[in-house]
Description:
This protein is α/β, with parallel strands linked by helices. The chain folds into two domains: 119 residues, Rossmann fold (3-Layer(aba) Sandwich); 144 residues, Dihydrodipicolinate Reductase, domain 2 (2-Layer Sandwich), CATH 3.30.360.10. The protein contains ten helices and twelve strands. The strands form two sheets. Strands 3-2-1-4-5-6 form a six-stranded parallel sheet, sandwiched between helices. α1 packs across α9. It is globular, with a radius of gyration of 20 Å. It starts with a strand and ends with a helix. The C terminus is likely disordered. Keywords: Oxidoreductase. InterPro entries: Gfo/Idh/MocA-like_OxRdtase_N, Gfo/Idh/MocA_oxidrdct_glycsds, NAD(P)-bd_dom_sf. GO terms for molecular function: nucleotide binding; oxidoreductase activity. It holds the Pfam family GFO_IDH_MocA.
Amino acid sequence: MKIGLVGAAHWASEIHAPGLAGDPDVTFVGVWARDRAKAAALADTHTVGAFDNFDELLDEVDAVSFAVAPGAQATLAKRAAERGKHVLLEKPIALNLDDGIALNDAIGNSGVRSVVFLTRLFHPRLRSQLASAAQARGLMHGKVRIVANSMRVLSPYNNSQWRHDPHAALWDLGPHALSVLQSVLGGISDVCAKFDAKGHVLLFARHEGGATSYAELALTALDADLASDTAFVGSEGKIELPQIDMINGGAAEAYREAIRQLVSGNQEEPYCDASYGLQLLRLLAECDEQLRNAHRASTLTLGGGDQGHHAG
C-alpha cells in the first residue's frame, strides 16, 4: 500500500515516518506539512518526496497517515476520504462533534478504511492483557491514571497549541483512558467530569453492564503527582495492567500494529476505526461541556458576589 504522511513535528518524525519507512507492506511515498522546511527535512531523512500541497500528495497515495493537530486532521482527513484514500488517524479524531461527524460520514460514504491510533489498544502486550481482563469474571470497577507534566516542563509538545487549552488533558489523554476502560468493562452509559483542586481532570463513568470507573488526567502535574497506572477490581480480586514505556519503543511498536490493521483491513480482531473514534469524541464533548458549565456556574457565582459588594 502506498502511504503518505501529513505532519512533520515530533510525533511524525519519531513514530509515523520511521514506522512507514520500515514496514515491508508499505511504500512510504512522501510527506506534506504546512511547514515546508520541516517536511523537506523529514522526507530527506527517509529518502522520500516532500510535497508542495496536500492534493499533490493525495494524487500519489492509497492512504494517508495523519500526525497533525485534531482540528486540522478532521478537515484534511475528510478531504482524503472523499478522494477515496484510506486514513490512519490520531486521537481525538476532531476537536468538536460536528467535524467528527462530517469526517466519519465521509469515510462511510466513500467506503475507505480507517484506523484510529490509540497506543494502549494497539500495543501487543497491552492488547493481550486487556483482552484477558475483559474475560475475567466479576470485575465491577476500573481506574486509569495518566498524570503527566509534558506541558509544564520542557518537552517536544510545548509548541502544540491545542494542548495549551485548559481542557487539553481531557482531549489528549481522555481517549486513552476511556478506550481502555470500555475495552474491559463495556460501553459507557453515563459519564461525569470535573476538575480537582490540583487542576487535574477527573472522569467518573457508569458502564452498560453496571460497572463503574474513574480516570485522572493531567498534562501539567507536579513531579510528585506523576502517575501512569491502570487497574480493575471485582469479586475475584484485582488486575493491574503492566506499564509500557511509550516514549522508548512502546508507541513505535503500537504504531506498527496500527499500520498492519490499515493495510490488512482485518476487522475481526479488536478494531479502532473512525466510528469508534466518533463514539469517544461524543464522550469527550459531553465531558468538555460539563467542565465548561461548571466554570460558567463558578464565574456567575463569583460575579454575583462582586456585583453585590460593589452595589450602591
